[in-house]
Design brief:
heterodimer; A: alpha/beta; Alpha-Beta Plaits; Elongation Factor Tu (Ef-tu), domain 3; 3 domains; 6-stranded antiparallel β-sheet; 5-stranded parallel β-sheet; 11 helices; B: Ribonucleotide Reductase, subunit A; two-stranded antiparallel ribbon; 7 strands
Chain lengths: 415, 474
């Protein structure tokens, strides 16, 4: 990554005042004195913290391990943090708009990505490096200070009209401005207006659902899959700022965009690679991008594609129609519905166990790459299912897990 | 600074280069293990416990998690990384290079400080040894065991200093640390609070919140010591101590949370109703708080102490956050207010600060303790309950110092014996309170299950999910 490029969106390190016991261990540990406190709170100076993660393991409570994706120019100052009783709600990129890819921690800071990857490499569920053969990603070409404008060239609803879940497929065209992307990458959208505190809204991130050569092949455009947010995680009514803005856009409207972001959740670009894709809801966005990439290359590629896709009902499944039209010999599709009337709840991990023989066979191959995208809560379920499948087939999951991570063949994008 | 686990005694102090010391410690080691088997956690030596072990003293290495049987825990000797430029930062030797050996004239005092600190470590393991039989969840049982093994390691830390720097006297003291027993009338532990029983889990959480916090403040004061090996030892102990206070603060918070949930659900503040629901009513929690708080602030010693002045002047024991303070770090001519009873009421009197250093540390401790109590109140407030927990007055229920022998209510009224006796049942846990709390103590061993009187934690240990198997009972 080019260190001279300003990172527009940073992953700001924060301490949860509700969980923190003010033991001072983090402040004592921090090698760059980024952490300070008053009689009320322990806080992290965003401009000093280098994301070296030295404070993470020593924290006895887990309060230390909180991150918010915010515009670099709008990090929470310590004066504000010192007054908090609770953390501010996670920004849209984490709780509001599913289907996002969270940007890597500020790569321009000391320590950088390598240190982050190193420190998280044991505890992270997936790889912190891209797969072998991935094309080199471009990141941070457009920043908060200098965003690029895109024109809306399409906005259609992709869930059935009578279901509650309102998911849109939105196509943005960049005209003559270069915007090179890879499948699995994300972009940031700057919604217009200001928040309750009078600050301009922070950027919201969305994974691309289109492949590198354009939603329409040969055009300089990309597609997003955006679910309109009308309630928070607890079910209380909340109008998601950016998702509503995007879902209400009309053709011809102009959108401010930053990015691209993401340099690990990428696909291997060799024809024998098998893709095992597991997702829920708008977590399907990167899977759609990768599937479409492979469909366009189909004549030259013989690797297998296997998809596990979960939603509440078939009618809430984005892209249900086009998905079902893909040839069976091209992609092995498995759908799990948790709210179909009169049928027991089924989750993606249940389906993975049912298809255990085929999943195990895929995992045996060194050409197989696993991608998981969806709600955070599915992470453990998927890991458990992978473990169960492996162990049933006499394989050592822990060894395989390490191998998948160290070879960049297991990727999670959860929120 | 990685730790050499190939050695019989894991260490980062090049123990193998000092054969005499190594042999002495290897001689002490089996006695320690014998003490652990006899006085360590009761009936749980064969469990596989998800424990944290230090594999090096830098941040990336000291929180390594794995399953382990407790007697196989690698107790060892770990000192924080040395700072070659470190100086004595306070007292009459301020500005001199920090001492790598014990200054002859302070030998007896230093030994006394180290033995007193060292004695509390095995004492708390002894006090808590039966709690495992009534743990409210696997998560809590694992936290108890983590606290226990780390107290054991802290004993090792002090024993290393005794063996390494105090010759034969030190070896005898190290042996005596394994001979005394908490609550034993013939061979009691040195400090009063460490001979009290820890009969139930509410007492355990209160103990880890209040009494382990005394440990934190004592360690912080010793981490400022001009005797560098003591400073480096205690500095590393502090990183472990933080977990103990976490267990206390979050434990009490979870008990409060559960009580408030029941209060809200059943729209009742009546202790009898709440007890019928099997949760611990807030007034009982307040009485436990009053008890543990007042017993613990006695641990800081007499309000005026010439020993404290000598320790400070000699550069042996500093104040909390000594090097962050802006004064001259010599303190001559400065004064500090202490509380005393004069003319039938509580009054403040200014005394030379050097003599009042116990009081200075006690006041810093009080400030720190109040922070957590305020956070407990936030839990109550969140549930829309009007009750608020209060830290009692500093003079309440004191047995040490000028306030001993006086009766002061939690809100700071000096009262006579009769008034005290009339009120004490509202202020300190009664036998009925203790019997009620004891009646709740049943053992929960299934994964992801919690006893009815305590809420589950917010986050798992080492970010593990809440249904994680923290203990394999075998």
């Amino acid at each position: 990554m080019d260190a001279s490029v300003t990172t527009a969106v940073v992953k700001q390190h924060l301490i949860d005042p509700e969980i923190c016991i003010r033991c001072n261990t983090c402040e004592e540990t921090c090698p760059v004195h980024a952490i300070t406190h008053d009689s009320r709170n322990y806080v992290v100076r965003a401009d000093v913290c280098g994301s070296c993660l030295a404070c993470i393991a020593p924290c006895p409570t887990g309060a230390i391990d909180n991150w918010r994706v915010v515009a670099a120019a709008q990090t929470y100052p310590i004066d504000e943090q010192l007054l908090w009783d609770v953390l501010p709600p996670a920004p849209a990129s984490i709780t509001e708009d599913p289907g996002v890819a969270v940007a890597p921690p500020a790569a321009n800071a000391g320590g950088g990505l390598a240190a982050v990857a190193q420190a998280f490499s044991d505890s992270a569920p997936g790889a912190t490096i891209p797969p072998a053969g991935a094309a080199h990603p471009q990141v941070n070409l457009y920043t908060h200070r200098e965003p690029v404008t895109a024109t809306v060239v399409g906005n259609i609803r992709v869930t059935d009209g009578d279901v509650e879940s309102d998911t849109h497929h939105i196509v943005l065209d960049f005209g003559a401005k270069p915007f090179p992307v890879l499948e699995g990458q994300s972009i940031g959208v700057l919604p217009p207006g200001v928040d309750a505190a009078g600050r301009t809204h922070v950027a919201r991130q969305y994974s691309l659902s289109s492949p590198r050569d354009g939603e329409r092949r040969g055009y300089n455009n990309i597609a997003l899959t955006v679910k309109r947010v009308t309630a928070d995680h607890a079910g209380a009514p909340v109008r998601g700022v950016c998702s509503n803005y995007l879902c209400d856009l009309a053709k011809g409207d102009i959108v401010q965009v930053i990015g691209p972001f993401g340099n690990t959740f990428l696909m291997p670009d060799h024809p024998r690679a098998n893709l095992l894709m597991i997702c829920t809801g708008t977590g399907s966005a990167p899977m759609r991008a990768m599937t479409e990439r492979r469909r366009r290359l189909r004549a030259d590629a013989d690797g297998k594609l296997m998809l596990f896709f979960g939603a509440r009902t078939a009618r809430e499944l984005p892209y249900f129609g086009p998905l079902m039209n893909l040839p069976r010999d091209f992609i092995d599709i498995n759908l799990a519905f948790s709210r179909t009337p009169d049928t027991p709840k089924r989750y993606v991990q249940d389906l993975m166990r049912e298809r255990g023989d085929d999943v195990a066979a895929l995992l045996e191959s060194p050409d197989t790459h696993v991608y998981v995208c969806g709600l955070k809560s599915m992470e453990q379920g998927v890991l458990d299912a992978l473990r169960a499948v492996c162990e049933q087939h006499g394989a050592d999951w822990n060894a395989r897990w390490r191998e998948l991570k160290s070879e960049g063949r297991l990727h999670f994008e959860t929120y | 600074m990685s730790i050499d686990y190939a050695q019989k005694i894991p260490n980062n102090v090049n123990l193998s280069e000092d054969r005499a010391l190594q042999r002495a410690l290897e001689h002490w080691q089996p006695n320690y293990i014998e003490w652990w088997r006899e006085m360590g956690p009761d009936g749980s030596q064969d469990f596989d416990v998800y424990l944290r072990t230090a594999v090096s003293v830098d941040p990336s290495g000291w929180a390594h998690f794995d399953y382990l049987k407790m007697p196989d825990y690698r107790w060892g000797i770990f000192l924080a990384a040395p700072d070659p430029a470190r100086q004595v930062n306070f007292g009459e030797h301020k500005g001199e290079a920090a001492w790598q050996d014990v200054p002859g004239e302070h030998r007896a005092n230093l030994r006394r400080i180290i033995v007193t600190q060292g004695d509390t470590e095995p004492a708390s393991v002894e006090q808590q040894r039966h709690l495992g039989l009534t743990a409210p969840s696997q998560y809590d049982l694992r936290n108890l065991f983590q606290v226990n093994v780390e107290e054991g390691r802290h004993l090792w830390a002090m024993v290393y200093l005794l063996h390494r720097y105090f010759g034969r006297d030190g070896r005898e003291e190290a042996e005596a640390l394994l001979q005394r027993r908490s609550g034993d009338t013939d061979h009691p532990r040195i400090l009063g609070a460490f001979n009290e029983r820890t009969p139930d889990w509410l007492a355990f959480f209160m103990f880890t919140y209040f009494t382990d916090r005394d440990g934190k403040f004592q360690l912080c004061a010793l981490a400022e010591s001009g005797f560098d090996p003591l400073a480096r030892t205690t500095k590393f102990m502090l990183t472990e101590e933080a977990h103990h206070m976490f267990v206390g603060e979050s434990g009490v918070a979870r008990v409060i949370q559960r009580t408030c949930e029941a209060m809200r659900e059943h729209k009742s503040e009546d202790p009898a109703t709440l007890r019928a629901l099997g949760v611990i009513d807030l007034p009982t929690i307040q009485r436990y708080l009053n008890f543990h708080y007042s017993v613990t602030i006695d641990l800081f010693g007499a309000d005026q102490s010439s020993n404290a002045a000598i320790f400070y002047g000699a550069g042996l024991k500093g104040r909390f956050e000594e090097t962050k303070r802006a004064d001259d770090h010599v303190l001559k001519g400065m004064t500090y207010p202490i509380l005393e009873v004069a003319g039938g009421k509580l009054t403040e009197r200014a005394v030379p600060m050097l003599n009042a250093l116990n009081e200075v540390l006690r006041d810093d401790y009080i400030k720190d303790s109040m922070g957590g109590v305020a956070r407990w109140n936030k839990v109550i407030e969140k549930h829309g309950v009007a009750f608020r927990l209060q830290v009692p007055h500093k003079a309440f229920n004191r047995r040490i110092g000028t306030l001993a022998g006086h009766h002061v209510t939690p809100d700071g009224q000096l009262v006579d014996e009769a008034t005290w006796q009339a009120g004490v049942r509202q202020w300190l846990p009664t036998d009925e309170d203790r019997a009620y709390v004891a009646s709740l103590m049943g053992r929960v061993t299934e994964r992801a299950r919690y006893a009815n009187w305590i809420a589950p934690p917010v986050v798992g240990i080492n970010r593990q999910p809440l249904d994680f198997e923290y203990i394999r009972f075998n």
